[in-house]
Amino acid sequence: MAGVSPVLDHLVFAGPDLGDAVALVEGLTGVRSVPGGRHAGKGTANHLLGLGGRAYLEIIGPDPEAPEPGGPRPFGIDELREPRLVTWAVQTTDLDADVRAARDGGWDPGTPESMSRRTPGGELLEWRLTPFSHADGPVPFLIDWGDSRHPSEGLPVVPLRSMFGVHPRVEATTALEAIGVEMEVQAGTRSALVTTLEGRTGPVVLL
């Protein structure tokens, strides 16, 4: 995959309304995503599309069947006005070791936390991840699925062709280097991710 590190786990496409975000992605790609599950206590639910290999696109928004959560929803969802690509995750099999290595390299990805969700079929998926920060832009969070099945298995696929970052500060490149990720980062006035997917009728840009 040109321009994408092989440690990509998933992209996060978030919106203020889950149904609208799901419909937008389907309209652009021509491929229908599948329900992933609900995040208990977080007030969110997601749909998923494969990106090829062990990677996927997460479409996430407020869970219409859940009560208001006790705190902010993840990924800045409560502040979004429209769906957009907000961040991405790097796959690791030893999260604590990689956090220590990143800190030694000059970037602190934050303290890991545990999360879980049940799939529509009742399977429990559990994982650990580092926090998401609005200021990070193209800088990913880290995720470790432990013994759980990886969510990319069995998904309809919209191949990821390329990805690059945009960021106004050099610290973004420093952070990527600290976790060993190779990704182009262009200078810009705001932080962003720009990805190209291969939809049913041709290339689709998500940002």
UniProtKB/TrEMBL annotation:
It holds the Pfam family Glyoxalase_3. PANTHER family: BLL2707 PROTEIN, GLYOXALASE-LIKE DOMAIN-CONTAINING PROTEIN. Residues 8-175 form the Glyoxalase-like domain. SUPFAM superfamilies: Glyoxalase/Bleomycin resistance protein/Dihydroxybiphenyl dioxygenase (SSF54593). This is VOC family protein. It comes from the Bacteria. Gene3D superfamilies: 2,3-Dihydroxybiphenyl 1,2-Dioxygenase, domain 1 (3.10.180.10).
